[in-house]
Fold this protein.
Amino acid sequence: MTSTPLAVRPALLLGVPNRITLIRTVIAMALATYAFSTGDLLWLVIGYVSYWFGDSLDGWVARRRNEESLSGAVFDIVCDRACSFLLAAAFMATYPDTIGPLALYLVQFGVLDTMLTFSFLLWPWMLSPNYFYKVDRPIYVWNWSKPAKAMNTGAVVVSLVVAGQTGADWLPYAVAIAALAVKVVSSYRLVEILCGRRAAAPGEPRS
C-alpha cells in the first residue's frame, strides 16, 4: 500500500495553514468592505496590515508544521488577489487620485504576477513559488525573495500614503511602473527558458 504524497493529501485542505488563509482573507476583505463604505483611511490601513500579516503567517505555519501543499499554495495565491483587489477598490473609491497608479499595480499584480506565480505548477515537484530558485534564481530573487514580496504587495500602497502626506504625486507612478517593468522582464525571461532560448540559472534562495 502506497501513501498519499504530502502535496496532494486531502486532509491538508482543512489543515491549519489553509484555515489561517481563510480567516485572514475574510478579515481583510471585511475590513476593506467597511473602509469602502466609510471612506476612512484608518480602516484601509488596518485592512492592509491584516492582509500582510496573515499572508506571512499562513506560509510560516505551513513550513513549521511541514504542511506545505499545492492546494495551499493555490489557495493562498487566489486569496491574495481577492484581498488586494478589494482593498485597492476601496482605496480608489476613497481617494480617486490613486486610480492611475493603482490601475498599473492591478495590471501587473492581477495579470503578469498571477501568471508568473502560477508558473511553479509547470514543475510537478515544486510545492510553491518559494522554491523557484531551484529552477531559476534571478526570477525567484526578483519576485519571491523576501524583499521582492515586500515590494510587490506594499510598495505602491506605502508610496500612495507618502504621496498623500508630501504631495509627491509622481512617486506612486514611479513605483508602479518599476514593479510593472520587473514583471515584464521576469515574464520574458520565463518564456525564454520555457522555449529553450535561455538556460535557467538555479541557485540558492539567499538574495
